[in-house]
Design brief:
2 copies of one chain form a homodimer. Chain A has 12 helices and 12 strands. The first copy, chain A, has about 325 residues and is of the alpha/beta class. The model of chain A has no long low-confidence stretch (mean pLDDT about 90). At the A-B interface, helix 4, helix 5, strand 2, helix 6 and helix 11 of A face helix 4, helix 5, strand 2, helix 6 and helix 11 of B. The first copy, chain A, binds a DNA duplex (16 and 16 nucleotides) through helix 2 and helix 4.
DNA sequence: TTGAAAGCGCTACCAT
DNA sequence: ATGGTAGCGCTTTCAA
C-alpha cells in the first residue's frame, strides 16, 4: 500500500480510502488509484485488515466426526451440506474456513471461537458432541445443524426428523409391510429422533405387525450391508428396511440383492436424506428428503444474525417423503 | 495476552514465549502461565499472529466450477477430494480455507494469492480455467489437481488418465465388446485425456469393431442418463458404455435399465473414479480407481515444498482398473 | 479533501 | 531467564 501511495503521490490513508471506494476521495484520484492497484496486481492484505477491524468476514464450518459412528468427511451427506453452505457463505461475500474435528480434541470449540479466525461458527452434525455444544451455548455466534431436543441450549437448524421418519414408516405400513427393521446409530441425536418417529408410527401399526426392531450400525454403506447380511443369516423375518440415512439404505439394497431377496417384491427399502444418488440406485430409493439448500441458507442466516447480536431461535425444516420404486406396493 | 501477563506477574514477551512452549522460560513459570491461560479460556489471536509472522498456516483450496460442465460442489468426486485434502491439511496442523470459484470472477487467482489469507493454493480441477492457471504459473505456491498436458507451466497432481482409460477400453475389447460409446465432456482437460486413452485403445481394436463414438454430456448422473436415452432412441448400436466419470456411468446404468437393456448381458458399463457408491450400484460398477488419498497427500506435500521455496515437478499417479459385475464377460 | 499518527495483538530482536 | 520495544499492514480518528 505504501508503494501504491508513493506511485500515486498521495498518502496511504488516501489509498486505503480510495480502495474502499470512499467518497471522501476525489473521484478522479480514486479511479487513478484503483487503476494503479489493479495494474500492479496489488490486493489489500486480509490479515492486517482483519486485525485492524477485529472481524474476519469468515465463517468457520466445523465437522465433528464422532468415534465409531462410521461417518467420514466423504459421506455424501456432509459433502452435500458443505457444498450448499459454501454456496451461501460465498454468496454473502464471506470466506469459509473448514475444520474437521476429530473426537479426542479437547475444548476445540473454545479454541475455534477465540482464535479470532472467524466471526462465527457453523457446526454440522451433533455427532456425540452434544455435551461440548451445550457448554459452548453461552458463546453466541454458533449455529448447529442437527436435531432439536428439549433442554438444548444451543441454536440448531435441522429437518423434522421425527415427522419425516413417521411419514416413511406410515407409508410402509400403508403398503402392507409388517416387519420393518430400523438400521442406524441412535447415539447420534438426529438418528435418535428418526428412530423415535419410527417407533411412534409403529405404535399405531395394524394387528399382526412386528414390533420395533433396531439394528445398530455405523452410518456407512458398507456397515449397512454387513449389518443386514448378518441379520438375514440369523434368519430374521423382515419385509421392510428403514435406513437411518440413504447410505445405510443403499448398503441394505445391495445386501438384499446379494441374498436374492427382491426389492420391492420381497422387501421394501426406505432411506433418509435424498442424496443425489438415491434416484439412481436399482431400484430407485424411496427416501425422506432433507432440503439441504434451505437448511444451508437458514444456517448462514441465523449465524449472521447472531453475529449481529440477535438471539435467534432454532429452526425446524419440513422433510418430505419421496416415494420411488424401492417401496412400491408389495407385488406391484 | 496483556491480562495473562498481569495475572502471572510477568511481561507479555514471557507469556508469548511460554505459550509457544519455548524453553527460554523457566519450566515452573511456563506451566503456571499455560495453566492460567487455559483457566481463563485465553487463546492466542491467530490474526495478529499471522500478521506478525507473515504466514497463515492455512492453505486455500479453490474449486473452479466451469460453465456448463454440469459439475457442482456436491459432485462426489469433489467431495471425496475435499475430504481427503482436508484430512491431509489438518494432519499437518494447517487450516483450510475453502473457496468456490464461479466462472465470471476475474483474476480470482491473483486475488486469492495476494490477500495473504493463505500460504499456498490448491486448485481442484482445471475445468475450463486452464488459461488462468497458465498465467498464474509464475506464482509458485500453487498446485493443481488435474491432467498434465504438454506445454503446461503449472504444477499438477493427477491420475494417469490416458493409461487408465486405455486399460478400461482394452478390458471391454478383451471381453468381446465391439461398439463402445464414450460419455463425457472433453472440454475438461482430464476428460480429454481419458477420451484420448479410449481412442488409443480402439486403434488396436479387432476387426469388426465400431470406431470411436463420443457422446458429449455434462458430468452429472442426470445428464448421463438423458444423453444415453437419447442415443438409444436414435437406435444406435452399442454393447458397451465408457462413462468419463462414475456419476455419468451411473446415469447410464439407469438409462439402460429403463430401456430394458441388461447389464452386463446386453451392454457393459465402465466408469472412472471409483467413488464409494460404485461398489453399491446394481450391478456393481467396473471402474478406473483414482487413488484420492494418495493424490491428496501428494497435493499437500508438493504445495508445502513449494511454499518452502522448492520447484517441484508435476506428479502422475497410477490409476487401477477395478473389474466388477457391470462388465462381466458377455453372457456370463 | 487530505495527511499524520495511533493502535489492532502478536513475536522476536536486543538488552540486561 | 526475562523485559522493553519495534513493527507486521491496515483503518480511522483527529487536525489541517
Amino acid at each position: 500500500m505504501q508503494d501504491i501511495a508513493r506511485l500515486a503521490g498521495v498518502s496511504v490513508s488516501t489509498v486505503s480510502r480510495a480502495l474502499a471506494g470512499s467518497h471522501l476521495v476525489a473521484r478522479g484520484k480514486r479511479e487513478e488509484i484503483v487503476r494503479l492497484a489493479a495494474e500492479r496486481g496489488y490486493v489489500v492484505n486480509t490479515t492486517a485488515r482483519n486485525l485492524r477491524l477485529k472481524r474476519s468476514e469468515t465463517l468457520s464450518v466445523a465437522i465433528p466426526l464422532g468415534q465409531g459412528t462410521g461417518q467420514s468427511l466423504t459421506d455424501p451427506f456432509f459433502v452435500r451440506m458443505i457444498g450448499h453452505v459454501a454456496d451461501e457463505i460465498t454468496q454473502r461475500g464471506y470466506g469459509m474456513y473448514l475444520q474437521k474435528v476429530l473426537p479426542p480434541t479437547e475444548s476445540w470449540l473454545e479454541r475455534l471461537i477465540d482464535a479470532g479466525r472467524a466471526d462465527g461458527i457453523i457446526v454440522i452434525g451433533q455427532n456425540i458432541e452434544h455435551a461440548a455444544l451445550q457448554e459452548a451455548a453461552a458463546y453466541r455466534p454458533l449455529v448447529v445443524w442437527g436435531g432439536h431436543e428439549p433442554g438444548q441450549r444451543y441454536c440448531t437448524v435441522g429437518s423434522d426428523n421425527v415427522a419425516g421418519a413417521t411419514a416413511a414408516v406410515e407409508h410402509l405400513l400403508a403398503t402392507g409391510r409388517r416387519a420393518i427393521v430400523f438400521l442406524g446409530d441412535t447415539r447420534v441425536p438426529e438418528i435418535r429422533l428418526r428412530y423415535e418417529g419410527y417407533r411412534c408410527a409403529l405404535e399405531s401399526a395394524p394387528q399382526g405387525s412386528a414390533g420395533a426392531r433396531l439394528l445398530a450400525t455405523p452410518l456407512a454403506a458398507d456397515a449397512g450391508y454387513e449389518a443386514l447380511r448378518a441379520l438375514m443369516r440369523e434368519g430374521a423375518a423382515l419385509d421392510a428396511v428403514f435406513g437411518a440415512t440413504d447410505l445405510v439404505a443403499i448398503g441394505a439394497l445391495r445386501a438384499l440383492a446379494d441374498a436374492g431377496r427382491r426389492v420391492p417384491g420381497d422387501v421394501a427399502v426406505v432411506g433418509f436424506d435424498d442424496i443425489a444418488l438415491a434416484a439412481h440406485t436399482t431400484p430407485p430409493l424411496t427416501t425422506v428428503r432433507q432440503d439441504f439448500a434451505r437448511g444451508a441458507r437458514t444456517l448462514v442466516d441465523l449465524l449472521l444474525r447472531r453475529i449481529a447480536g440477535e438471539d435467534t431461535p432454532s429452526a425446524v425444516l419440513q422433510a418430505e417423503l419421496i416415494v420411488r420404486d424401492s417401496s412400491l406396493v408389495r407385488g406391484a
